[in-house]
Structures are given as structure tokens and as C-alpha cells.
Amino acid sequence: MVITLATCPSDLSWLNAPGPLLLGDDAGVLYLAQRIADRAALLRATGVIAGQIVMAPDAPARDLVLTLLALAQLGAGVFPYRSGRDPSELLTLAHRAGVEWRWDPETATLIPLAPQQTIPAAPAALLIQTSGSSGQPQIVMHSAAGLYASASRVNARLAVTAAATWLCCLRLSHIGGAAMVYRAALAGARLRLHDSFDARTVRRELESHHVTHVSLVPPMLARLLDLGDRAPPTLRVALVGGQALSRPLAERALAAGWPLQLTYGMTETGSQIATSGPLTAQPDALDTSLAGALLPDVALAATDCEADRPARLRVRGPLLMLGYANPERRPGQGLDADGWFTTADLGCLTEAGQLRLLGRADNRRVIGGINVSLTQVTQMVQNAPGVADAQVIATADPIWGHRLTVVYAGTCDERELAHWCQTQLHGPTCPRAFVRLERLPLLDSGKYDRGRMGELVAQLESG
């Protein structure tokens, strides 16, 4: 399927209710048509007009989906945010993006904020904040055309049809979760919704509710495998993205029959821009650094994989964001004059047109005059015996420039892991300290909370 930007609809008329929406943890089935019409009527009567934005919490997830689809009927946009955020934080976010309204699901009322004097010429259908896993979070604006471009291409790549059941255990305030709503609505697929990730509930539903598609970040996959390695019988696609998948975790899942497919993307690209085919358990064929082929019509400026130095990936295409939010919601912020977005990720294209990821540009440190990739060191440490999960944190060192600390979970103790590192990693690539945890801390998005890990390392160094 090839869909060019010119054929992407400029509104959300293509967005239908997923049929039916199934609530997580056996809460029941929700058929949406009348509820969406009622919610749209309430929003219209309160004063919402086309082009405006309504903030709404991501829990209950079913209420957010109702609001999202109702706003689509009005030609208005939605800005999902993590439920429970401090009211002062919400006001700051609203000001940064010129948001007109906030929806309160507890009272079923709209709260007016600071209305725009004029509706932007390029209205946004979705505003969504980046995870902040590295750096200051941004608010990203997506158009209806961009959401359609993404949903239609991903559905074609992953064979999402009306017969599919997609389990959504990613929060809807992150692009990975929100994108599933648009894909299911476009295909008329079933959508099982969870307010957050609970491994036991998700594992049970995967086994008992004919789920065909699920999206996970690697820590979620690890938690599910801990509850039982056997792959759910009806699962056709287990999409893994958000961060690098370690080879040991991939091998463990593949050995149990999980239908893994890797993906690469970000909030700015409306979720994924590259997706692999099904991974194979054959050792010579397994390469977890390959994110797969680009989606149709995605342009990528990248070096070939024979180049000596990897470069930051640059992306352009119909599924790209309008830009970062500003009070007037003017498009273009964060994009260059030709519409390219420069990512923080390093990568290259193979001769076969596969995207190979080489870590983040901000994930490299100079140690003793040597440029060290924290991603490569992490991948090595994850292969150590007795290590279930690991991340490498770099801190300043007055002599060497930086020093490396491993934050990990597993059965081996710190002395055993230090000895293994000394035999496998040399010079500046060898970590000097180790912090063992029962589990690595995660953000709401399911990604590793590297900020929290940095705090733990700082406590170790100061203590």
C-alpha cells in the first residue's frame, strides 16, 4: 500500500469507533457509537469548536478514547496527559500549547483555560508530550493527515484488519499508546484497553481473549516472560520498540515462540517509521540492532553502514509532526526549512535498505581520550551471566573525564559482575562501579528511568 501526502485526508472523517472497544481486566464490552455522539453533543454545547484543543487525563483510558473520538467528530484536537498530574503542571502545559479547554472525567465537565483569539491555519488533531527519557520533554503537534498517514501504513505493514484484537497496555498519554487508538479505529479492529501496565493482567488477557497484536517496550516483555515463557496461542505480532531490545531477551522470547517484530520511531514521527519482519531464532540471522525497512513514503537521510562515523538520522515524510507546540500553535518549530526533522539517534542504512540503529548521539562519552558508546557497553553487559537487565550510567570524573557505572538486576552479585567485565571489557569501556537492584526503575512510558538511575549512582558516589 502506498499512500502519498496528497491523498491523506485533512480532517478526521476517516476515524471510526473501534468495534467493539473491550475494556481491560474483563470489565466488559463498550460499543461506542451512541456514547461518542452524546459526548460530542456535550462538548459542542459547552463551546468547543473546530480547531481547538482539549486536555484530558489518560485514565480512565476508556473515557479518554470517548473524548478523543468525540472531538474528532467536531474537528477539534486532544491533548492527553498522565492522570494525577499536579494542576500547576497542567496550567504550564496548557500555556505552552495555547490549549483552550480541560476535560474532567470525574465531573463530566469542561474547564475553560485561555482560549485562542484565532484558530491556527494548520490545526492540530493530537498534542502529545515526549517521554523525557533523555532531555527536556517537548509537546508535539500532529495533524489529522499525519495521523492517517501513520495509522494506514502501520496497519498495512502489520496486517491490522477488522479481525484483529490489539491489546493496549501502554499509557495513552504517550505516542505508542495513542497510536493504537487511531490504528484500531481506522481498521475497525477490537481494542482491549488498560489504564497502565500490570504484567499479570496483561499475561492473562493475552492468553484468554484472542489477542492478535500487542505493543511492548523491552522491560514489559521481560516481566511477561517472568510469568511464563510460552507465547500466547493467538498472538500474531508482538511489536517491541521504545528502546533497544537486548539479544538475550530476544533469544529468550523467540525460544518460547513469541512473534517478535522490532520497530523504531518517536513521538515526533507519530510512532514508528521502520518495522522489521518477524525475527528468527537462528543465531546467525538474529540482529536486534536492525529496526527493519522504512514505511512507505518515509524519507531518511542516513549514512550507509560502511561509513566510518555514524550520523544523526534525519526524517521527512507525511507522518511527521507539524512541529513542537507554542502558544499560537504555529507549525514548523523543530523542523528545518525543507521539513526535515533531525533526531538524537545514530544509525545507518544497509545495502538491503534496512535501518540499523547505533545508539543515541547524546549517549556517547569521552573517557581517557576515547569516544565510548554507552549503548555498546550496555549491550555487552546484558550478555553477562546472571544479568537479567542492565543499563550503563556515565558520571563526571576529574581524571578520566567520565566513569561508567552499571545499574542492573540479576542473580550475580557485584563482585562477580565486576570480574566478568574486567575479562570482557577493557580500558575506558570497563565499568568501575555496580548498583544491583531488584528491578530497574521505569518511566510511565515503560522506558528506563535513567534520571532515577543517575540519582542512585550519585548517592553511591557521595556515600
Automatic annotation (TrEMBL):
The keyword Heme does not apply. Residues 380-447 form the AMP-binding enzyme C-terminal domain. Residues 117-324 form the AMP-dependent synthetase/ligase domain. InterPro entries: AMP-bd_C, AMP-bd_C_sf, AMP-dep_synth/lig_dom, ANL_N_sf. Gene3D superfamilies: 3.30.300.30, N-terminal domain of ligase-like (3.40.50.12780). SUPFAM superfamilies: Acetyl-CoA synthetase-like. Coiled coil: none annotated. One of its GO terms (biological process) is fatty acid metabolic process. Pfam families: AMP-binding (PF00501), AMP-binding_C (PF13193). One of its GO terms (molecular function) is medium-chain fatty acid-CoA ligase activity. Keywords: Ligase. This is O-succinylbenzoic acid--CoA ligase.
